[in-house]
Amino acid sequence: MKKILFFLISIAFFLSFNLNSQEKKNLNVILMIGDGMGMSQITSGMYSLNNRTSLEKMPHIGISKTHSYSSLVTDSAAAGTAIACGEKTINGTLGINPQNKQLESILEISKDYGYKTGIIATSSIVHATPAAFYANVISRNQYEDIALQLSQNEVDFFVGGGRDYFTKRDDKRNLIKEMSDYDFVYSLKKFNESTSNKIGFFTSLGDPYRIIDGRKPKLSDAIEAMLDKISSYENPFFLVVESSQIDWAGHANDFNWINAEFREFDEAIQSAINFSNKNKNTLIIVTADHETGGLAITGGKVRRFTMRTKWGTIGHTAEMVPVFSTGPKSETFSGIYDNTDIFKKILNAIEN
Ligand code: MG
Ligand code: ZN
């Protein structure tokens, strides 16, 4: 009798566990970050697209407070850490809180839930924003340490620049050789053709080009190739996509550059929306880590959407930034909240 009871309890436990993991299995998350993309950048980008943006297709909108632990004006490392790990920290720090505790990122947590993981950036892959999802370093400038941590972290698929940080190192290690379970590719075609479960696609040796200088691949092409690959498994996936250079264009106070980067990002957002239309269990979040440049549109013509602009700074500003979302759980991203809540809301969406 005892044996039968034990058997029944085991079956019930097994079934409920399976049911749970089945539910969890389904929610894919695509987190898209426009570095330095405040409301003015979105507005000018939208007008430069003749008054339209794919962001208009995202039904839920929130606003995020961007200040860091140490400063009203955050940098990308502290803001990336807040979004990725759920704690505000000191500017310049990645994945470590002010009490010196190493934090686990939402990407790493999703792996514990059986997620496939991917990162795409239009900067080097060891730059602050992408690094916030896999690295723990006191200074964002420890690029070679960050590369070493990526080599040990097992992000399944990544696309970005910065190959030199893996091969031309002070410690003389060749991380590409050490990452023997990865297939390293150097074109989108090879990325598509690869059948490996782990792929690193280096788009450049250092920082990738500006979009106005012909950067390849286009972000929309990269995200479409990535989604093909990462959604081909039984597992759900967590994908981070960063349009990195909206920020760089802001630092340069370069209006044409910033709009061109936004337009490329906008197209990539449309690619993500197209995917979610076919794969309903996909949560898409589009946000920024902070605003860059203090951009103001001070005049212009409504017929052709030409704009007159002023810049407030060559640095970042303390402006709150919008959070757009669509898909299951996207309604939880409405309201005004701290950037650290983005981590908590994604975690909640993954866990439930
Ligand atoms: Mg960045
Ligand atoms: Zn910046």
Describe what this molecule looks like in 3D:
The strands form 3 sheets. Strands 5-6-4-3-7-1-8-13-2-14 form a 10-stranded mixed beta sheet, with helices on both faces. Strands 9-12 form a two-stranded antiparallel ribbon. It is globular, with a radius of gyration of 21 Å. α2 crosses α12 and α11 packs antiparallel against α12. It has 13 helices and 14 strands. It has a single domain, classed as Alkaline Phosphatase, subunit A, CATH 3.40.720.10. β10 and β11 form a beta hairpin. With 352 residues, the chain is α/β, with parallel strands linked by helices. Bound molecules: magnesium ion and zinc ion (ZN). The site of zinc ion (ZN) has 6 residues, from α11. Magnesium ion (MG) binds next to α5.
Features:
single chain; alpha/beta; binds zinc ion; 352 residues; Alkaline Phosphatase, subunit A; two-stranded antiparallel sheet
Overall pLDDT, averaged?
94
Shape: globular
Per CATH, the class reads: Alpha Beta
CATH fold type: Alkaline Phosphatase, subunit A
- The proportion of residues in beta strands is 15-25%
- What hetero molecules are in the model? magnesium ion, zinc ion
Question: Rg, please?
Answer: 21 Å
- The run of helices and strands is HEHEHHEHHEHHEHEHEHHEEEEEEEH
Any idea how many domains?
Answer: 1
Question: How would you sum up the major sheet?
Answer: 10 strands, mixed
Distance between the termini: 36 Å
Low-confidence stretches: 17-24
* Strands ordered across the widest β-sheet: 5-6-4-3-7-1-8-13-2-14
Name the CATH homologous superfamily: Alkaline Phosphatase, subunit A
- Number of strand segments: 14
Gross CATH architecture = 3-Layer(aba) Sandwich
From the helix content, strand content and strand pairing, which structural class follows? alpha/beta
Helix content range? 25-40%
The total count of helices amounts to 13
Oligomer: single chain
